[in-house]
Amino acid sequence: MKILISADMEGATGVTWPADVLPGTPQWERCRAMFTSDVDAAVRGFYDGGADEVIVNEAHWTMRNLLLENMDERVKMLTGRHKSLSMVEGVQHADVDGIAFVGYHAGAGMEGVLAHTYLANSITGVWLNDVRASEGLLNARVVAEYGVPVVLVTGDDVACEDALGYAPEALKVAVKDHVSRYAAVCRTPAATAVDIRAAAKEAAALAVRHEPVQEGPFTIALEFDAEHLALTATVVPGVGRVGERKVAYTSATMYEGIRTFKAVTTVVSAAVEEQYG
After folding, report:
1. Cα dist. 53→18, 50, 58, 91, 98 in Å?
2. N or C: which end of the chain has fewer CB within 10 A?
3. What is the C-alpha separation between 250 and 218, in angstroms, rounded?
4. CA dihedral defined by 180, 183, 189, 193, rounded to 10 degrees?
5. Using one digit for the tens of pLDDT, what is the confidence trace for 31-82?
6. At residue 126, what are phi and psi to the nearest 5 degrees?
């Protein structure tokens, strides 16, 4: 049994505001340890449940946040940026039996601690076939094309509720309760590690590959907080404006869809001015 963990940081234990997740800040240094604790608990739980191999794909920002030296010695970690499938890199190799979304969060325009989709604040909404989409939903549709089930989701309570829509059978662990975008009722790393490890052990039983799911075509729409960002997005082939601040494109598969999404967000992020967005 091989498990892939997609590890994001906004949904980690103790994280509630931007400085907690911005590389290089003192708060990020502090929160890295709690993020690592969450991921390591999942790793240990999957091994408890019978996994033969667990690989962690770093999925936050620079994708260089976790403290590998503080993790179970059996784990392997894919760290660094510029990967074909970004947050779920590795799922395409036909040897992954289940995937866990650890440290996930709600999507742009939703309630939830540090809710966003790929870009921190320039994107105000994303829709997949007219359904408002979080990173969890987008990534779940990608991994489904490879026959890999989502077996575990951790994050705040809103992220766990969001996961009911895209991975109803997955185990969910809420490590904190949403109060506002920048506030939450948090539990200690010692407490959340116990819960995550227990859930991962149980979730291992769900790690059974299924037939690839082909549900395309997929129409993905993105709304931005400024008109010029929509204009900028249209330099990506196939992306067209459907509103003053909104663009959309259609892809035959989610493999193509998520790669185009990454291209759009990369181009748009380069067009954001420091003060005016």
Report:
1. 33, 9, 16, 14, 11
2. C
3. 5
4. 0
5. 999 999 999 999 999 999 999 999 999 999 999 999 999 999 999 999 999 9
6. -135, 140
